[in-house]
Amino acid sequence: MNRFAELFDRLAYEPGRNDKLRLITDYFRSTGDPERGWALAALTGALSFPHAKAGLIRSLIAERSDPVLFALSYDFVGDLSETVALMWPKSSPSPHGAVEPTLTTVIETLSTLGKAHLPAQLARWLDALDETGRWALIKLVTGGLRVGVSARLAKAAAAALADKDAQDIELLWPSLAPPYRGLFAWLEGKGDKPVSVDPLPFRPPMLAHALDDADLQNLDAREFIAEWKWDGIRVQAVAAPPLARLYSRSGEDISKSFPELLDALRLPGAIDGELLIMRDRRVQSFNVLQQRLNRKSVTPKLIAEFPAHLRAYDLLADGDEDLRGRPFVERRHRLEDFIARLADERLDLSPLVSFASWDELTAARKDPAAAGADADAAAVEGVMLKRRDASYLPGRPKGPWWKWKRDPFMIDAVLMYAQRGHGKRSSYYSDYTFGVWTRGDVGEELVPVGKVYFGFTDEELLQIDRFVRRNTTERFGPVREVVHAADQGLVLEVAFEGLQRSTRHKSGLAMRFPRINRLRWDKPPGEADRLERLEAMIVQIERAQS
Amino acid sequence: MRPEDILMPTPVGLCCKLGGFHIDPTRPVGRALITHAHSDHARAGHGAVLATQQTLDLMRLRYGDSFAGTTQAVNYGENLELGGAIVTFHPAGHVLGSAQIAVKAGGVRIVASGDYKNVADPTCAPFELVRCDVFITEATFALPVFRHGDPLGEIAKLLHSVAVFPERAHLVGAYSLGKAQRVIALLRQSGYHAPVYLHGAMENITRYYESHGIALGELRAVSGASKAELAGTITLCPPSALTDIWTRRFPDPVTAFASGWMRIRARARQYGVQLPLVISDHADWDGLTATIAATGAGEIWVTHGQEDALVHWCTTHRLKARPLDIVGYGEEDEDAATPAPAERGAEP
Ligand SMILES: [Zn+2]
Questions:
Q1: pLDDT given at position A144
Q2: How would DSSP label each residue in B4-29?
Q3: B263: which chain A residues are within 8 Å (Cβ-Cβ)?
Q4: A212-405 maps to which CATH number?
């Protein structure tokens, strides 16, 4: 358990994806079965046992510490699990029965242990672990073990044991169960590849490259079919009645979050589509979908208020027949037929956008409402171009599919604060808070409207970093306030995808996906945009939605 | 005689009227007795300074030749008569040359321990327990959440990371007096014999340690090394350098920080380091309480740090205890310095 805790501890401080991956792979390599399998289960969220409540942890420490010292310590540390882990009294060198538990022991015991025995068992384990081990154990049993590692990353780390493709594991995953002995045996060349017996397999999705306007000249309009790119969540709906499953783009099973859609999947097959919220036959904006995603428990009321809908792009399997090798035009015909047979109002086809030339498509992208998207236009994120003859290929092959997003919203904002980044960027001021002008109590002032971390080149990062260091007006720990007056400061052209009202921000607004589009060294901050302009944008967006 | 008649706590430090001196005064005084060379205890500008030879040397390295009017080196255990008081210096185990200062008058002995730790450290003389009537203790890590553990275990974490990421440089932030040399000695003790690289700011002090017979193996200056050469190596630097543009000379650096504060996640995160190493030159909770009990003192004065917790502990163990309000300790002390104030977000 201590070694597993050490891994979790290190992952919690390591920001880099690739570095996290290497740490996990190193752990898998140096740890045996079944311990590493349970670690993989913990990392992928595949563990389930009843969690202990914080109150139990509190009462355990209350029996073992002075209340004043505990209060002072908790106040200083700020986290209950960590405080308890650190001040847990040291047991004498070889306390009776205190052998360091393995992760395997902990998980196997927890899944069968009666509630009444939990406090004493936990105390015995805590006696036998070190500080980090105790911290990880308390987090594990209270369900709070999170270190910013995705299930996908953990699987990729397992694949890296044997230079296997992470996609291979992704395909096998639904048929595997902890502690994954068969998987590790295969990865280490000591066993055969586990057989995928899942009746509802996930098929790795095909993704598109972003299209630059310049790319268009090299493409022949006659070879492509266009459809709208909807602003929802890309999903894969797989059915083998009476079973059905909904996967996210990364292969995560999200069936539990959208039970009403599963009922609609009555024909065997696999649909690639976009999950949207539909009210009165109108697609709602991503902001509305976000409200449903934010809720933890799916109640009938939530379903009635935010009805989920699947808009189909592609058909990957029809019954037992795998269609992925067929050209897109053929799959599209099969899809139209499939959706017609299903005849369910919770599922429909994503309509095609007709065009004879790139100019016509450019116009359609600019004004989707006039080009057939009608009232759903606010949920259109852009257009997708798909080669008529393209097979369905996993990953992001260059050429067959292009996404061509609508022009983003754009404002000129003023840099107000800069914060040091993490990992490779830790010596650079790379996170920026920007603001726009508004009338304050004492005249014109800047109000922060968002934070931006990317969109700039390495060269631009150096320039901004230099600017920040030379124009700091105050320091708050890792944050620097940067000069921002009408005649002094740096203007950032910020692009973003959407805007919504928010009570969490002083400006009353929250931006979706902001990034730096351009540095406006040429522009005096006094000429940057005003809050009124953002408010007008919101009104416009809301009008388009209503 | 009341203890306060021997050593009077004042806002600028402990004052012994009887002997005509201050201990670790935070402002210039006529005669100062200095426990150790960390800058919050050892300041420049006193008329006369009495300290161990190493402390005087280290002060000279830091402040230049004219850091005091006159100096007098004191050996551990040597009896000094100052006015009506007998003064002796005893090893504090904190850094090279660090001392506890015992002051005796009228049959009452008070020990001002400065900063101390009661665990093994190959770079300085071990802490000596001095029995006394009043014990003045620091409280930097005086909460039961602070138990520093085995420093070799922390070094093992660092070496494991070097093994996993052989193409990256490892930067270890460590205070330049004491901590840096201890980390190097611990690396050698752990069987790491490759050259260790040094930031320019710690070269002088480290060479001084070596001149005192503390073997630190092969040391190299970072300034002369190419980026490629630094792959897979370990470099010691002052903590402030970890976020400096200076780090750009290293290939994809992993940043580590050796400090007792690294025990607390929120603190470690404030520094943005990837590898917090719990290595401290101050006694931890168990060390403080065990030492207090072993001195046999019936009265404990608590200074700089978490005074409340330690005073509470003393009281519950039937010891008379009081916090001292001395301004200025722990502010510049390189290890005791608390991290920057909690992040004040720029988030609206
Ligand atoms: Zn010190």
A1: 79
A2: HHHSEEETTEEEETTTTEEES-SS--
A3: 86, 131
A4: 3.30.470.30
Q: What are phi and psi of A185, to 5 degrees?
A: -60, -45
Look at residues A267, A272, A228, A278 and name the one whose alpha carbon lies nearest to residue A251: A272
Residue of A303, A318, A223 lying closest to A268 (CA atoms): A318
For A77, name the nearest residue in chain B, comparing CA atoms only: B264
Same fold, A212-405 and A409-545: no
Q: Do A68 and B255 touch (CB under 8 A)?
A: no
Provide the token pair at A120.
Answer: 């004493």
For A147-175, the pLDDT digits (tens) are: 778 888 999 999 999 988 888 888 788 77
- Find out whether B228 and B204 touch, Cβ atoms under 8 Å: no
Q: Kindly write down the DSSP assignment for every residue of A294-312, as one continuous string.
A: T-SS--HHHHHHS-EEEEE
CATH architecture of A409-545: Beta Barrel (2.40)
Domain ranges of chain A: 2-141, 212-405, 409-545
Is the Cβ–Cβ distance between A408 and A339 less than 8 Å? Answer: no
Higher confidence at residue A283 or residue A48?
A283
What strands, in cross-sheet order, belong to the sheet with A380-387? A209-210, A401-405, A380-387, A224-230, A352-353
Q: Give the pTM.
A: 0.69
Average pLDDT, integer, range B100-123: 95
Nearest to A361 by CA among A377, A384, A378: A384
| Secondary element (H or E) of residue A386 | strand A380-387
DSSP letters for A426-449: TTSEEEEEEEEEEEETTEEEEEEE
Dihedral sign computed on CA atoms, order A434, A437, A439, A442? positive
CA of A60 to the centre of ligand 1 (A): 36
What are phi and psi for residue A214, nearest 5 degrees? -70, -30
Is residue B270 within 8 Å of A478, Cβ to Cβ?
A: yes
Question: What per-residue confidence (pLDDT) applies to A195?
Answer: 80
> B119: Cβ–Cβ under 8 A, 6 or more apart, which residues?
B93, B148, B283, B287
CA–CA separation, B270 and B343 (whole Å): 7
Instruction: Confirm if A355 and A227 have CB atoms less than 8 A apart.
Output: no
**Helix or strand run (H / E) with residue B175:** none
Q: Is the peptide bond before B25 cis (omega within 30 degrees of 0)?
A: no
CA distance A28 to chain B (A): 13
In chain B the domains, ranked by start, together with CATH numbers, are: 3-145+281-332 (3.60.15.10), 151-277 (3.40.50)
A2-141 maps to which CATH number? 1.10.3260.10
Q: What is the pLDDT confidence band of residue B338, given thresholds at 50, 70 and 90? A: very low
Residue A68 Cα to ligand 1 middle (Å): 28
Question: How far lies A469's CA from each of A334, A406, A464, B346, in Å?
Answer: 60, 36, 9, 16
A69 vs B313: CB contact, 8 Å cut-off? yes
Nearest to B164 by CA among A498, A20, A460, A534: A20
Q: What pLDDT band is residue A542 in, cutting at 50, 70 and 90?
A: confident
* Rounded-to-10 torsion of CA A291, A517, A19, A421: -90
Per-residue pLDDT at B266: 87
Compute the mean pLDDT over every residue in chain A, rounded to the nearest whole number. Answer: 89
Instruction: Identify whether the C-beta of residue B171 lies closer than 8 Å to the C-beta of residue B242.
Output: yes
A464-483 residue pLDDT tens:
999 999 999 988 878 899 99
- Tell me which chain A residues have a C-beta less than 8 angstroms from the C-beta of B275: 10, 13
Residue whose pair of structure tokens reads 């397992």 in the numeric block: A158
Average pLDDT, chain B: 91
Do B266 and A77 make contact, defined as CB atoms within 8 angstroms?
A: yes
Ligand 1 centroid–CA B335 distance in Å is: 6
Residue A544: pLDDT band by 50, 70, 90 thresholds?
Answer: low
Neighbours of A307 (CB within 10 A): 19
Contact A72 B143 (CB under 8 A): yes
